[in-house]
Each structure stands twice: as C-alpha cells, then as structure tokens.
Write a structure and sequence with these properties.
The structure is a homotetramer. By secondary structure, chain A is of the alpha/beta class. Chain A is about 30% helix and about 20% strand. The first copy, chain A, folds into two domains: about 120 residues, Rossmann fold (3-Layer(aba) Sandwich); about 160 residues, Dihydrodipicolinate Reductase, domain 2. Chain A contains eleven helices and 14 strands.
C-alpha cells in the first residue's frame, strides 16, 4: 500500500483526491495539510467524506510529509507549490503538482503568471496519453483542466500535420473557480446564464500551444473560455481549420476516425463518442471525443468532454501516480460516471 | 408623476424597485442612495437596467431625500431602517420600509432581532389583502417574503376559524439571501441541492403568528424554510391541521373554495390555481394559491407561490404605494410573469 | 388600438407574443388560433397569463382572422406558415411570420428545409437594425433566433469590410426547442450538462450567410450551436478572423467601438456591454454586444446576448409590427429584463 | 463471483444497478433484459457505461435468466414484476424486486395500485436497517424511494414511542420520474421551479405507514411530495408532532441523539449530520439524518437526505443482495458521493 500525502487539501482538488484515493486498491491518503484548518477534521470541509475518511488536517513541514509518504500531491495555488516541491523531492518523495508551477518552461511560466520562479526543477508534463515518460518521472506538472480537454481533442490531428489553426471555445463548470464564494459563483449570477471571461488571454493558452506545437511545429492556437451553469465538467468545442492541402482528409470520416483510434489505441480513458457530453463523464476519469467535418469546407469541429476535477485535475494526477509507481494505469480509476 | 426615493439601492430589492418603477405610469425613481457606491452609475450594479435607468447612486441626508421625493422606500438591512424613517416622515415623505423594523410590536421586534428599537413609529403591516388601512398610512412595514406567502395561503382559513395548527414548509429561491456571495449561495453548494436552514426558529415566524392570530385568536404556527436551486420565488406548503369540529368542512372542496374566493374577492393579485408553481408568478406580483384536503383526515394542504422579490418585497411595496397615494392598486404591476 | 391575431398560439412564441402584447399600449391580441386546442382557455396552456388574458383558442380560417385583425403573427412550424400567409395578405392583413418560410430566397429555402415552397411572396427580412424597409413591408420574415444574435454581433464588422471568416459558437437556452418534451429537453439530460448539436449544418446558417454577405460580399461563415442548462437566452461567441490588411484595426479598441456605435446609433435595443450575459437581457428585447481582440493576432471575439424568445422571436416580431404600423419602435417593448 | 441478472434494464434503476455492479468485488452483471431493445448495446442507452459494460440487452425467459444467474433484480414497472418473480424464484434464483409489487400486504397493494395481484409470494421489506431478516429471504420487496427517506428519518422515534403524528414534506430530484420525457421533466417546466404533486395521496404512503406502525402501533402519517430542480436525491423534512407526555424528551438534544445512535449503531450507511443535504449523499448509498426541536414546543423536525437512485433504489437493492448472499453489507457500496 502506497502512503499518500496531499499538500493543500481544503479545496476541491484536494477533496477529489481523497474521494478517489478512498477507493484505490493500492494507495491510501495518510496526510493532508492545511495551515488554516490544522487540527480540524477533513470532513468539516469535505462533508461528503464522513464515515469514509477520518483524517485531520495537519500543518507539517515538507520534510515531515516526505518522510511519511511515498507520493505527495501538491494542491496549492500557483506560486505556492514551488515552495514545497524541492524539499519534498529532496526528501525522497515523488511529487505530482496540480498547480501550474511545473507545466511550462521557466520563461513562459514567468511571462504568463507574472511572477519569478523561485525553484525550477525538471518535470514531466503529466498528460499520460502524450507523455509515456511520466512513468520515469519524479516530478509531474499535472496539466490544467482546459488544456487537458483541448489537447486531447486535437493532438491526433496535430501529429497528423493537418491543423492550420485551432480555435478552442470551452465551456466549464464553475467548480474550476474553486471552493471560495465569489461574484461569478454566486448562484443568481450563474444560474440560467453563461459567462465568457478572459476572452482572449487565459493563462492556459501556453500549455495548449506548447503541446500542440511539440507534435506539429507551428500551430496557430486561440482559446476562449466560458462558465456555464454546471458544477463539474468541461466541454471543449475545437474549431479546427485544416491546411489547404489536407482539406480532403477531413471529408473522409473513416480516415479521421483512424487517426484518433491509432493515436489513442493504448489510452484507456479516451473514448470516441458520437455526442460527447458532460453527463457521460461526470465524476469519472474518461475523456470523450467526437468530431464532424463541415461538408466541403476546411473546418473540422472536434468536441471533447471531461470532468474538470477528475481527468482535468485529481483523476489525472492519480493516473500519473499509477504510472510512476508501476501500477496499472487504471487502478482506482476504472469506474463509470454518475449519470443521470 | 410621483417622485420616488430609494434608500439603499445596491441590493436586489432596490434593483427590483427600479425595474418595476421603470414601467410605472405615475411614479418615477428620482433618487437612489448607497453610501458605498455614491457617484457610480446605478447600472454598474444593476446591469440589466442599462439604457433604461441613468441615475447615479447618491449619499444624501434623509431630509434631502424627503424634500425631493413624495414616497421613499427604505431597502436597507434591519436595524438600519430605523435610522432613516423618522427623519423621512418628519420631513413630509411617506415611507415604505422593506426591512423588518416596522412590522412587529416593539417588544416582539426586540426579542426576535436581539436589538433595541431606537425609533418606534406607528406603522401599518403592509399586506394590502389583509390591511385596507394601508391606504391611510404614512409608514408601512412591508412584510417579509416568507410571511407574505404563508399568510396569504392561510388567512382565509384563519378567519373562518378552522385552523388548529399550521405547519409551513417553505422553499425559497436564493435571491432572498441577497446580492452578496456566501457559502450558501455558492453555485456548487446549491445546484442540484436543497438546504433546510433555521429549521425551527426563523425570524419571520412572529410576523406569521401575528397576522394569523389577529384573524383567529390562538393559532399554533410552525415554520421551516429551505433554499432550493432557483433564483426567484417562494413555494409555501402549508400543512393545516383543522379543529376537530371543523374537519368536515375541508372535505368539501367547494366550501373551501368559497372561503378563499370570498376572502380574496377584491384582491387583484391573488389567483386560485390548480397547481401553484414558481414559473407562473416569476417576475410578477401575483400570488397563486391552491389546496387539497387529505381524504377523511384533518389535514388540508394549501400551497402558495409568489416571487419573493416582487409580491414578497418590491412589488408589494409598490402595491402599498399605489394604495397610499390613491392610485389604482395595480398601477405599474399589471403584467404577467416571464414563463417559461 | 390595433387588433392582433396569432396563428398557432399554443407554443412558446405564441405565449410570448401574448405576454408582450398584454402590456402594449396600442395593440391588443384579439384572436389566437390552435386547431388542437380550439375552445380551450389560452391559460390552460399559458398558465402564467391567468387573470391577464381571457381569450380562448379558436380555429378560424385565414380570411376570418384577417377580417378581424390589422396585423397577424404566424407562429406555426416551418412549412405550415406558407398555408396561411397568402390568404392573410390577400384579405388585407399585414403579416409577420415567425417561421422560416419567408426568410430566404426560394431556392435556398427549399434546399435548406428539403420541402417545396408552395406559396412564395415578397417579404422583408425582419431584422430592423439592418432593414429599414421593414417599415413599408406587408410581409415580414422574422429572423431565426440564432441568426439574430449572430448577425447583430458581426454586421458592423461586415459592413466595415474587415471579416475574412466568422465562426459562430452559440449557446442557447432550451426553450428554443419548443414546448414539447423531448429527449434533449428531459431535465436529467440537460441539467449540469451542455450539448453540441447539428455541429456543422444547422438550418440557420443560410440566414446568417445571406445577411453578412449582403453587407460584405463574400464572407466565410461557420456556425455551431449548443444547448445549455438555461431556459431563455442565446449567447453567441463570434470568432472573427479579420482580413490580413485590416488586422491593425481590431487592435484599436476605440476604432472598433466606433464601428459598432455608428452602425447602431439609431438602434434602441442594441447596447454595447463589457460582458454580455443572458441575465442582463432575460425577458427583454435588448441585444447586448461586447468584444475583445486577441493581442497581436488576427482574431476578434465578439459576444452577443439576446433572449431567444424576445429579441430572437416574439419581441422582434412586435418591434417589426411597431415599425410597419408607424408606431414608436419601442412601444410595448421598453422595459428591462428580470435580473437577477 | 455472483452472476447477476437484471430484468428491465433500460431505465434509470437498471442503469444504476449496472454502474454499481461494475465496481462490486464479488458480483457481476451477466444478463440484462429489455424486450424493446433486445440485441442493442446496453451503452446505447446508458452511454456513461461505454468502455465499462459490453453487455447487450436480451429478451430471455425468466427460467433462462434464473439458470444463468444467482441473483436477479427486477427493475420493471409495478404490475409487471409479478409476471417474472414466481418463475425466477421457482427456478432457483434469489430475487430483489425494485417495483412495488412485493412491498405491501396484498389487500393494501391492490387498494393502492388499483390492480389485482396475480402472483403473491412471501417477501421481506428490504430496508435492511429495520429488517435483519433480509439475510434469510429469497424474495425482497425493495422499498420505494420516498419511504426509504421517510422511514429512516423517523423509525427510531417510532420505536421510542414518542410520535403522535408525522407529516413528511419531501423534495425529490426528477430522476425518480424515470427516463421517459414528460411534461413534468421538460426542462423549462422544472428549472427554477418546484412542483408539489399528489399532494395528499401518493402511493408511497402505505409503505411509510406500515413500517412506522410496525414499530409503534398507531402513528398518524401524512406525506406530501415535491419535485425540485435536481436530478438525484430526496430531502425529507419530517415534521414530527410528539405525544404530549413525551414533549420533554425532544427538548433534550442529547437524548434524541442517543435514540438515533442506538437504533442505527449497526447501520453502516446511516450518518447523523448537522445539515443533511443532497450534495453529501449524491451517487452514494448513505442516508444522512439531522434534527432540531422547536424550543418549548411539541414539534421535532427531522431531515433525511438520500440519493433516490442509490439508497432509494439500486444501492439499497445491492445492500440487500450483499446480506442475502452472506457478503459484507457494504461490499461494492463503500464509497463517498461525488461532491461538489
């Protein structure tokens, strides 16, 4: 049994790690930290875990956590993870960072987040479907929720070299904004509504661009996010404009299917779907992908659906853990979502 | 044209007063106050009023407001209205207070809200269907949202002397909790949920008890509120236990109907309905009422539906204004809700 | 007072026409038809109109309706309106058709809807912001809901000649799918979900293309609709790719603002907004529009918000009626939406 | 490994059985029937199970199912289960019936459902917290969703002999109404709404009355259900009027707590909670219970929260299966809900 630590466990991703680990056959949460809530029952915040999890929040040092744990998840805000990660690694723990501190090259990180990186370390971008080297990593930069949906939707096309530009129009549940009440998450402001925000400059763009460019060289990437009246899930509508000389390919549905099937043939959590919907992936680690070409035109629409807290955060983190620790990739994650 | 002032206009009831007044044929908002937002456009908060309302928030004295206005609505928190009302009245304005400061006898108010009343004045409880003396009042204590739904549902039965006890189980939209984000109004905490709160001791109980007792002498009143995933509306399910000797009456549907029809024969905003629902009263000043007796038993279930911000607050306040100022009771309020 | 007829009044657009007309100062619904429901109270379907509307559904001939009415709205399915319109016109009524039968040239209509047009007549495309000739028309083809949002969002740019291609990613409330329950509108299938449908070939595309091309010559138009968990409203996110030689213009916010302000300077229902949202236009006839350019790139994102049943259908129809009949364009429509 | 059959698998309870069994360590669904869908993939209906469940719907005889299965769940409409159950039992299967056919004495069943019972068999009422004899049963009548919430909320008080009357005001998610679209489940009719239905005579009343009377002799039971804008979950607000001579007990919070804790000391799925909410039990088999006495009065309010499809149906059925087959009561069910 692996002993697991969670740094910063009072938010949604921390709670979701606990939920998922509570059913994991080979890993167990043994330490969960929160400076603010140290000494309190974990279930004082994550009430749905009553009867299942009897841990209390603690406030230990990184070294103490590393000593007690085989793997540590850092679920703290960006800019804070970098204060934990080096000490955890140096004390022998493997680390999966759910913040954005280890997803990007330092210069891109600093430009995007407007802060200086105080503790660069070598890390693997933890999207296992694209990065088999996850298995050998000691530090994972777990991808952002939007990039997970956007990259999985289009990586096969990027690798096939057919993308001229990709415009991602994403629709997210509000849990991505976190556990703290805000004007945006105020029920009367979101119910029966939809809000476009950070219309052209969301911080997740560089992750998407980095991964698609790695596969395809120069790809023009745009991204516009919205929040919808839903708690969990991200639906990404990728409007892919294909290169002029490749326009014929997308008109051949079987050919496009084959590109996806081949790319994901060893990816247990990617499912091709007629109509990807949040309801089919809710609370699960699946990513559903579907597509349709505009007849006679150069536009291919690809749609992906994930649960932002699972495949978009904590589930993917555990998938990475499984691979890093030599477990079955699906251990503790092989269950369907909770439809209806 | 009446000139109207609104003290405390940055919240939902203030916004709703502006919305309703913008269509009123004989009254116009000319002054809206907010200390915090003085100088800012009203539409910086109430964005839906852009193009319709070009007022700015002001921070005048009560005397200044009274000088400019015929009628003033006080839409400030309980305990604050009493700092405005006397000066407004003394300066010649008629006042409709949407807080709880002028709804109850002083001793009941002080016991219920735990504060000393600093400025008692004679006021009429502004439920026009029960209080024709509204027409002659200078100061109205506009009823709470829950009491409006509960009292209208059962007043005819109280007057008919058949209630032994009434248990009100109410379900409210979250706008009743106000414009400020909170844990309760956080979308992930309310969507797909329902929350029972202040289970046995909500502060609105004394208003309900006061009005029913006025009609019927001693009536046993209990009240339990819930918030549901809806923005507007209160559905009240009144479980009425009838006096043993009156049990036969409720088994006669026509007899009960007649009790209601007679009681409300001059009440334009009360509609008898098969199935009262929030969707039928949303954004309107109507109160829909329906009922069903448990066959062979002593329980009559009465259901009422109102929009908490209209008939439960700002609409009722304008209805009171109409009556106080000798206008048609329905002026500016005679429109249907916005279904679907 | 104008006498108004509504052909096919049992659906949402029929109900919305009645709601809006009930507050119109110079027009009154006098006849509403439904073969299926003839003889029944209008309020048996449109329950929110109880107390406001005491009409019964009728089943008259077109000639009978025309005789009694000055203006007739046809709110029947596409392919059915054409069976009513000629007789209504020939009997002297002015007609506003809310179906798609009179929005497109015949050949485009037939290709798009797969049916033969049995009764072509000259009609004006009823988007008054673009078509002042509405004022002189006898027959209006009232635009589709999606086209209204998409065209208003981008028409000023089209006229300015800067659009290379426009990709419309629209998110609609489910009321657009009508009053009849279906798998898509089944609550468990829509709540906490979002569904992309008719991904590349929705029937509204030709309307959008027709109007933008009229302004700009050849514009590449794509459209992908979604339904979101909301009843009313359409948010359209227009990803506009600008012509290479015009890329500089969109980087100048003031210049783009001016293009919009000039284009809509006489359009009372178009409001420029920082963040267009459904909540600000709900139940109103406003169209809110905002935009943001991607820094240094050739993409301008324009967002529009309308209420699909008002500006996207019945409200726009009444706006057309006002213009056709020489009334103030805003008569009966000058009220804010129902936020929160 | 137990082989499991599901008769009538195209609805929500069938899908939920498959979801839960897919994670059960000692049971596996091997046969799922649907006459209408025979030959089709189970995932054509239950899309969220893609990749997890590769069964096809079948249309076998009861005998064939019984031959292949150790335990059979009948998830068909009331009145239909009785056509399957005898043959299944006679062929050696243990049967858990999720319909209402085997929950009540025949005369009560026939009076309540208005049909003749064609195949009475001895059955145990499958609420394991009250019926340890489940462990020895061959046929279980799995309780209704509302009765599960109502009975668990009040059984300890009934046994303690303190209930004079209990008025259950329940609020259910719409999934209880099934997978077929209807007027009630039409999104525009439920969103932002709440609907009271079968106000005094819902068919679940006899189950509640039967179980409470079994514990307490004569208890006056009333029940009024509502549907709220939620997919899963039932919150039951039980207004318990206590016997005059027991009124003191409920004023002693510790005493009431003790009554509950003792009654449920061996019930793993019952959790006492400050504020029971749907969000804490969603997708799980837990029943959360909280209470508050009205100070100085004879009313105790008890609130219970369950997931109607899990503890209210399929989860409870599997809990029964576990007990019948000598497995750990929590096997395959020991996981938290999916909050947020």
């Amino acid at each position: 049994m692996l002993d697991i630590g969670i740094i910063g466990g009072s938010g949604y991703t921390g709670g979701e790690l606990l939920r998922l680990l509570s059913c994991h056959p080979e890993a167990e949460a043994v330490c969960i930290t929160s400076r603010k809530l140290a000494g309190k029952d974990v279930t004082s915040v994550h009430q749905h875990l009553r009867g299942i999890c009897d841990l209390k929040f603690e406030s230990p040092t990184a070294e103490e956590v590393a000593e007690r744990c085989d793997v540590v998840f850092t679920a703290v805000p960006h800019g804070t993870a970098m204060d934990w990660v080096p000490a955890l690694l140096d004390s022998g723990a493997k680390v999966i960072d759910l913040s954005s501190d280890y997803r990007l090259p330092i210069d891109v990180f600093e430009r995007t987040y407007g802060i200086t990186h105080r503790a660069p370390r070598e890390a693997v971008f933890g999207l296992p479907e694209l990065h088999p080297e996850v298995a050998k990593a000691n530090l994972i930069g777990n991808p952002g929720c939007y990039p997970t949906g956007a990259i999985l939707a289009t990586a096969p096309l990027a690798k096939a070299g057919i993308i001229e530009r990709a415009i991602f129009d994403s629709k997210s549940g509000i849990s991505g904004a976190g556990i703290e009440p805000s004007e945006t998450s105020h029920y009367p402001n979101l119910a029966e509504n939809i809000r476009c925000y950070k219309i052209t400059n969301h911080r997740h763009v560089p992750e998407i661009r980095q991964e698609l460019s790695r596969l395809a060289g120069n790809v023009k990437v745009s991204f516009t996010p919205h929040v919808i009246p839903a708690v969990r899930g991200i639906l990404t509508t990728a409007h892919v404009i294909v290169k002029e000389e490749k326009a014929d390919i997308i008109q051949d549905r079987a050919a496009v299917s084959q590109i996806y099937e081949k790319f994901y043939e060893k990816a247990p959590f990617v499912r091709m779907a007629q109509v990807p919907m949040l309801s089919n992936v809710r609370c699960s680690n699946f990513c559903d992908i579907g597509f349709e070409a505009e007849r006679g035109e150069d536009r291919l629409v690809v749609i992906s659906a994930i649960d932002n807290l699972v495949k978009g955060a904590s589930g993917q983190a555990i998938q990475n853990m499984n691979l890093m620790m030599g477990l079955d990739e699906t251990a503790g994650l092989w269950f369907p979502g909770g439809a209806p």
